[in-house]
Amino acid sequence: MRCFTLSLLLLLLLHTSSSTCSSVLPLCNHHDNSNLLQFKNSFAIKPSSYNHWACSSSYSNKTASWNNGTDCCEWDGVTCDTTSGHVIGLDLSCSMLEGQFHPNSTLFHLTHLQQLNLAFNYFSNSPIYSGIGNLVSLTHLNLSSSSFGSYIPSTISHLSKLLSLHLSYNDDLALDESTWNKLIGNTTNLEELVLDGVDMSSIRDASLSLLMNLSSSLLILSLDETRLHGKFPTRIFGLTNLEELSLIGNEELKGELPKSNWSTPLRILDLSWTAFSEEIPDSISHLKSLNQLRLWHCQFDGLIPVSLCLSGNRLHGEILYTPSSTCSSVLPLCNHHDNSNLLQFKNSFSIDISLIGDSKTASWKNGTDCCEWDGVTCDTTSGHVIGLDLSCSMLEGEFHPNSTLFQLTHLQQLNLAFNHFSNSPIYPGIGNLVSLTHLNLSSSSFGSYIPSTISHLSKLLSLHLSYNDDLALDESTWNKLIGNTTNLEELVLDGVDMSSIRDASLSLLMNLSSSLLILSLDETRLHGKFPTRIFGLTNLEELSLIGNEELKGELPKSNWSTPLRILDLSWTAFSEEIPDSISHLKSLNQLRLESCQFDGLVPLSLWNLTQLTELGLAENTLHGEIPSLLSNLKHLTVLDLSANNFNGHIPDVFHNLTKLESLSLDSNSLGGQLPPSLFRLSQLYGLQLSYNSLEGPIPSKDTKLSKIKSLFLDNNLLNGTIPNWCYSSPSLINLNLGHNNLVGQIGEFSTYSMIYLAFSSNKLQGTFPNSIFKFENLTGLYLSSVNLSGHVDFHQLSKLKSLHFLDLSHNNFLSINLDDNVDYFLPNLTMFRLSSCKITKFPRFLGSIQDLHELDLSDNQIDGVIPKWFNDNLLYKWKRADFIDLSFNKLQGDLPIPPNGTYYFSVSNNNFTGGISSTICNASSLNVLILSHNNLTGNIPQCLGSFPSLLVLDLQINNFYGSIPGNFSKNNDFETIKLNGNQFEGPIPQSLAHCTKLQVLDLGDNNIEDVFPSRLEALQELQVLSLRNNKFYGTITCLSKKHPFPKLRIFDVSNNKFSGPLPMHYFQEFQGMMTRNDNTQTGGLEYMGTNASTTIVPYNDSVVIIMKGQMIEISRILTIFTTIDLSNNLFEGKIPQILGELNSLKGLNLSHNKISGIIPQTLCNLTNLEWLDLSWNQLKGEIPKALTNLNFLSVLNLSKNQLEGMIPTGEQFNTFQNDSYKDNPMLCGFPLSKSCGNDEEQPPSVFTEAKESLFGWKSVAVGYGCGVVFGMFLGKLFIKTAKPLWLARLICGYT
User: Fold this and answer.
1) pTM of the shown model
2) What angle do CA 853, 857, 860 make, to 5 degrees?
């Protein structure tokens, strides 16, 4: 009985795991991941002493797959919620764990756990600590046979959602009467209570009677060997739904069987070795479902009632035998052939008995009745085997094509789930089992194609074939299967390859309209369009298509009224709007449409689905406001609308949503203040509002978040102080308020359970809170850019032994004492950021870190040579050092080489010398490589051009020479290549045209000698092209690509020897310069840049340009910045009219060429132009009057030409000085001293000559080189105020 129950529980756990796993799961919750690792590390693994009978040879150490840096949702024994990524199931039964449980075990922080199985381990007589009561979401708890001791804590009664509780056969586990009373009083939905071997000697008859409170729920009650005494309450036998009752071995427990009113669904009754007495009453005949009756070694007397022996009952096994007995066994023996077939089937697989003890097949012995074997059910009339449940039976080996299993033709139910059949096919013999109604072969390593003979199973009601190795279903077999199994109620094929099945074949499901209740086709590689009418199947209750990313479809717009309870289309390509017809699904409990392509407004009628408990619409493009009708969903426990385009305010209606446990509205465009009612939800444990535009203070009064575990309000506009309850809430373990405008001091915490704490990038101040040093379970601490001051002794931080992530960067007034003479030890540290903290040497304690993933020591004052231990760790220890930033220090010597596995590596702005070692070729995982602004020399390794994932290669401002690598591979990922400021020679390699994702190419300031690289026209994503100051020559010609350089916004070929006409064919294709991209209209300025796959620090693209004769480096390029510089070449001919269509241009420099003709009137259309330099050419004619309408023009140079006539006046032209026009002998008028014959009175000069240096190129440099939101407007402001220098100094530090 107990074995069967445990197997069933394990099956449920594993099935849950398999049905939610793999690619469709969100990544495991960060904190759960950390808690699991700490839990694992608190125990030893002892396989040598591992010989529990319930454990399998196919199960090794489950925690072997639990590795840092991997997704815990993929770990053995772990089940995650498909919406939130929280761990909801943990099955570590038979996992060889050995050691003492800790009172503050991190297991007790996994508050989303619903199922926990730690059976069959060895916990060294540890108590079950009171922290177990934190796991209030548990429905299934199994701690059996794991050497727990002491008294069961009273907090176990907090687990009010329990359906199943198994605490059997531990060392010295006891349950007192008070705890029993609370437990039975609170767990009113309990279905299984198994306490075999627990000392319950203190519990009296009256307390046992409390079990009557479970009359409507209790199915299984097993209290074997619990030292119960006194008289067992007879009325417990009458519990309405009780199916199993076992009291074995309570030798002092008296009682008698009920004499009347005993008609219950009991299947198993075992009172052996008790003191039950009197006659067996005739009322026992009313137990029509009874399978097993064991009354051995009791004190019963008298005759066995005749009714017990009447034919038609279902008894098998032993009954009491007395000399007066008139019957002994009422079940025929197992069919001889079935017996033989089962034994041969068993013997065709291996089970390592020495390792695991018994398995289900251990009772299968020759000469015994197979109807008594575990997992076997026989027909009560014929003795034929009709049911076989070998799930979780640890069978291992290949199936035989002629397996004797296929001869059990009377089988009605077959369950072989969760075994390992070595990728065997499901052989055609399965079609012999034509009586099957239930078939489950899930998660058992079957492979190949499902045979067409499965369609012979026409009586099937339930078919589960999920999550095998490489199981596939072709279209022909599908068509036959659906055509023949017309009574099918459950079809679960998750993970089966159904890619060959087309839309028309899927439509055959309509044949099951009257029967199908459950349809689950998760991760089946379905594609094409899903037939909409399947949603209308008459009796369909559950439909899941998770993870079919190429499966398109839309929801029915009408005639959609079905009993659907669960609808999950997450991670599919379903699209269009959510229709109003969804409101007809009155029974809908769970609606998950996450990571699809739904758009438009959410229909108001959806908010009338009042039975909804879970609603997930995350990661679509839905928009509009969240209506107050949300208050209708009074049963809602989970609401996830994150990663959409919802706007407006969050409605203040949460007083109606009293059951809400998790709310995620992050990554939208929500504004306004936080609704007060949201902070009065007493059941809420998770609140995620990050990445919005929420403002105002965090509510501080009348808050009732008594169960809040995780609070994420980061990346908003919140202000005010951090409320006191954030420091005192005992349940709060994850708190992120970073990237807001919060003020005041960081207070001291009064509770110390925090696991994750982030206050970065606020306007806080004050000293480092000492209470943080008491956070024993803290894994992440983020306090960068919060203006901390005072002194922190790193010895205090080293107390945080659980710490994985530490960021104290950019606290300029905080002094951090890193004493090299002290051995700090942070054994779990994987991320360490101390950027801009004025440290002067490498922290020596890093040498003891075993598994560093991320290191940021940038912008400090570290000088000298990198320590040898650091280089050794890079090469030999830190194999997963994803992110390393040592830039902006004073480091010298040879360049350190990143290990393979590093994604981001920056050592820019140091004093490194020498070349790049060829060992860098091993670091092929690099996404970003920044070696700029050093004194490096030599040739660069050719392998850098062939790295498959490299996005950014920045080697600018060094002394490299030789040729540019010529082996850029096809389909590479390059987005930025910056080799400017070196001594590269030779031509541009043709393979550079393979960089089809390239956005920035800067080869300026080298010695490259070549013609214009027209082959780069193929780079359709290129936005910045700088070839300035090289030795390019010849005419710039177009290769007649259809649309060359369509996105180019910065085109700089100045200071070369190009000749011929200006490249008009290119100008007319510069679409990126023709459309104004004013991103100030949509939430602020945007900059060019790259985010590497694992980095949190973006790479900002930069470029060197010339403005009014000044060379400057723009360190961040606005996406609205557009310029053309063709100066200092040998171009000739006229200025093309087409230039006037590039209306987003900010700068145009054609100076120092041989350009002739007039200034075209079309330049007056360049209304965004801020500087124009046409000097040192051969231009003639008058200056167009309309140029005065260029309101943003702050720099103009027309000198050294042959222009004539009156200089236009008005607007910006009144600000230009003599230098703008000098050496044009035929020009006259203001500001020149030469007047024209019909001059009117000249306007006064806005600037004197002495103030000329205060505007010009600086006005533009501030706008594009600083990162301030209003920089783009400064140029115009300078002109109006005539005193811009103070503002330039304030914003950018100009002197």
Assistant:
1) 0.67
2) 180
